[in-house]
Write a structure and sequence with these properties.
single chain, about 110 residues, alpha+beta, 2 domains, 3-stranded antiparallel beta sheet, two-stranded antiparallel sheet, 3 helices, 5 strands, about 35% helix, elongated
Length: about 110
């Protein structure tokens, strides 16, 4: 019984590996680069509290076959405009702040 289960698990593993390699090759031949290079961008650093956070003072250009986008962060690692605006970590009561949580659409690559 255990041998049969291991055999089925092995077949599923190799099937998924074959599908992954096939899809990566298909994407490469259609776009000219591998998908993992598109999604594994060097904009994060390890963080003890959250696991990871964005690198501070970042000037990054992300180019794919679909878009060409620039990413800038300030000294705290918060996304900002090209001028690297600094935001106070202490909130003034006269100001209104908005926090976006969500998928890549909220992050806004392109």
């Amino acid at each position: 019984m255990i041998r049969k289960l291991l055999k089925i698990t092995g077949y599923i593993f190799y099937l998924l590996l074959f599908v992954e390699i096939s899809l990566q090759a298909f994407y490469y031949f259609n776009s000219g680069s591998f998908l993992f290079k598109r999604t594994a961008v060097p904009i994060f650093r390890p963080d003890t509290f959250m696991g990871f956070s964005m690198k501070p003072n970042l000037n990054f250009r992300h180019v794919t076959n679909e878009f060409d986008a620039y990413l800038y962060t300030n000294s705290e690692g918060f996304r900002t405009s090209q001028s690297h605006e600094e935001y106070s970590t202490v909130k003034d009561n006269s100001r209104f702040r908005i926090l976006l949580l969500g998928p890549s659409f909220a992050f806004g690559w392109g």
